[in-house]
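pasting for the record
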Amino acid sequence: MLAKIASALLLLIVGVAPTLLMAQTPPPAADAQDTSARRTVLRFLTDSDYPPFNYYDEDNTLTGFNVDMARAICVELALACDVKVRPWAELLPALQKGEADAVIASHALTAAALKGVDFSDRYYFTPGRFVGKRTLPKLDITPEGLEGRKIAVAKGSAHEAYVRAFFRDSAIRVFETVELARDGLLSGSVDVLFDDGISLALWLNGTASKACCEFKGGAFMEPRFFGDGVGIALSRDDPQLKAQINGALRKLRENGRYEEMVLRYFPLRAF
């Protein structure tokens, strides 16, 4: 399920004359406008086995970052919220059949996904991050700063490809799995580990890391290696809803609610 992972960066384009926008962008179809105007409930689908994004807690209550995001969007749009669970493989087909208005389940913005559905603006991004021992002297996390240093990566990962491309003067240590790479960091056989920021944040905040380590440096967000982020899947037939959800995402960032949700589930600020 970790393969589903793929910080959302909303790009605001300003300075375009409203009349030019109206001339270049056709209005939504009348039936789409009517549907959005009549909508009183926003129907979301997600799955339930991807903590901390969507899962059942100890009280059997559906929760998680994606679930909270869906409910926050409903609040911004003054709509009732209906969040239901389906198996991962059924989510996008159900959306295409009209059984939901939106799917919020950490779908990456890929060309394959875009063939069948539309997407909102991305609402989070999974960057590459370095971690190292807390006792490690301060390093400049750049190709020059890590020259000669031992970097652990998982075999065949985008993170291996990235360090091979940009950290050529480092000693790259390839492990069969990311778990073995973490063990290498714990044992001291490598200086730093490079992996995806979200899984690293969960590891650092859990017991398996033994409070050994911390993030070093900032986030690496090269789309060619780490993708274009994660969006909310939507029907291609309702551009009005897409505009509304994008507006709600923007407001959640502006009013601080987005940051509150991020810090609730990712206290180490993975993205």
